[in-house]
């Protein structure tokens, strides 16, 4: 099994929903890990393109996927790629939106240059019921931390919908 090194956390409400989804879904609980990305951004046109490889694991089986997204920057392009990849199978993606995105660096933990400092990204997303969920990730990379909070939030909503569907059908 692959190992991606990052520290992830979510708020209490998201933790409760995720725990319930794990209990309901068991092995069908979905995890998503972006393992590599290619990103380009044109500052003159405000257009960004992202191509990424991810591994989705459910039922203990890893499934590799290629995703592509466009936007005005890294997070927008990543969010676009993830939504495009999953919206055909999950109806809730038409109703979620980003409420807040913040980035903090911890230069006190960096080397002499401090350019390798840990970076914490916090992403808050709301659903159609206006419930907000917060996801946070820390790595030494701005892009990795940014991608990780998006992938974790997307996996959260996938598992929430799968659990809801299983409970009602």
Structure, described:
This protein is of the alpha+beta class and 169 residues long. The chain is built from 3 helices and 7 strands. Helix 1 (12-25) crosses helix 3 and helix 2 packs parallel to helix 3 (142-168).
What secondary-structure arrangement, pairings included, does this model have?
Layout: E1 7-10, H1 12-25, E2 31-42, E3 47-58, E4 61-71, H2 74-86, E5 97-106, E6 118-126, E7 132-139, H3 142-168
Antiparallel strand pairs: 1-7, 2-3, 3-4, 5-6, 6-7
Helix pairs in contact: 1-3, 2-3
Summarize the structure.
By secondary structure, this protein is α+β, with helices and mostly antiparallel strands. The chain has helices at residues 12-25, 74-86, 142-168, and strands at 7-10, 31-42, 47-58, 61-71, 97-106, 118-126, 132-139.
The main sheet orders its strands as 1-7-6-5
Taking pLDDT < 50 over at least 5 consecutive residues as the criterion, the unreliable ranges are none
Order of helices and strands: EHEEEHEEEH
Which descriptor suits the 3D outline? Answer: globular
Task: Supply Rg.
Answer: 16 Å
Please report which band the strand proportion falls in: under 5%, 5-15%, 15-25%, 25-35%, 35-45% or over 45%: 35-45%
Distance between the termini: 32 Å
Q: How many strand segments? A: 7
Helix content: 25-40%
Structural class: alpha+beta
Average of pLDDT = 89
Largest sheet data: 4 strands, antiparallel
């Amino acid at each position: 099994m692959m190992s991606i090194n990052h520290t992830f956390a979510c708020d209490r409400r998201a933790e409760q929903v995720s725990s319930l989804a794990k209990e309901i879904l068991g092995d069908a609980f979905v995890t998503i890990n972006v393992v590599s990305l290619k990103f380009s951004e044109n500052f003159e046109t405000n257009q960004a393109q992202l191509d990424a490889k991810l591994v989705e694991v459910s039922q203990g089986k890893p499934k590799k996927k290629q995703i592509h997204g466009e936007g005005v920057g890294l997070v927008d392009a990543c969010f676009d790629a993830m939504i495009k990849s999953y919206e055909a199978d999950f109806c809730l993606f038409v109703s979620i939106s980003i409420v807040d995105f913040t980035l903090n660096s911890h230069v006190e933990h960096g080397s002499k240059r401090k350019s390798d400092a840990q970076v914490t990204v916090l992403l808050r997303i709301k659903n159609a019921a206006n419930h907000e969920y917060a996801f946070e990730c820390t790595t030494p990379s701005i892009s990795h931390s940014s991608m990780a909070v998006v992938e974790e939030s997307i996996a959260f909503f996938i598992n929430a919908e799968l659990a809801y569907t299983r409970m009602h059908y």
